Amino acid sequence: MVALGGDPGERPAYRAIALVEAGYAPVAVVSLGGVPPAPCPHAPRIRVVCFRANPLDTRGEAEYIARLAARHHWRQLIIVPEESQTTRARILFERCTTVGLRWVPVGDPGSRIAYDVVYEWGALFKALFLERSC
């Protein structure tokens, strides 16, 4: 279970933790995106692994998770992005890993929807045309 970062409320992290608690995965891997980084969430009955991507973007998250999946011989990942990030995240993760990917997007905060739409269009253009590698 992988929660992508960026949301100040860290809704992806809490959705990922809830899915691990429900038995969908053995561990929640949480990206500490944003500036300043979000704190690593605590969950008393499950294993939570937090990381900070380098570069600090979705591509960096995809690269880190691909290495982690290879190291642990994972065959499938459940990714929890924000809805506006899902298309771009899917492109980047498919470039970086061959494991099976399932997607459980969470809604974007209403207060940031205009920013998210503009940001994601620019970032999608970058992923499609400027930075085409993993």
Walk me through this protein's architecture.
The protein has helices at residues 11-21, 58-72, 86-96, 113-130, and strands at residues 2-3, 27-31, 47-51, 76-80, 100-103. It is built from four helices and five strands; from the N terminus they run βαββαβαβα. The two termini are 20 Å apart. The protein has one domain. By secondary structure, the protein is an alpha/beta fold. The longest helix has 18 residues, at 113-130.
Key features?
about 130 residues; 5-stranded parallel sheet; alpha/beta; about 15% strand
Structural class: alpha/beta
The counted number of beta strands is: 5
- Number of self-contained structural domains: 1
Order of helices and strands: EHEEHEHEH
How confident is the prediction overall: mean pLDDT?
A: 92
Put simply, the count of helices is: 4
- Uncertain stretches of 5 or more adjacent residues: none
What is the CA-atom radius of gyration, in angstroms?
Answer: 14 Å
What percent of residues are in strands? 15-25%
Distance between the termini: 20 Å
Largest sheet entry: 5 strands, parallel
Strand order of the largest sheet: 3-2-1-4-5
Helix fraction bin: 40-55%
- The backbone outline, from C-alpha atoms, is globular
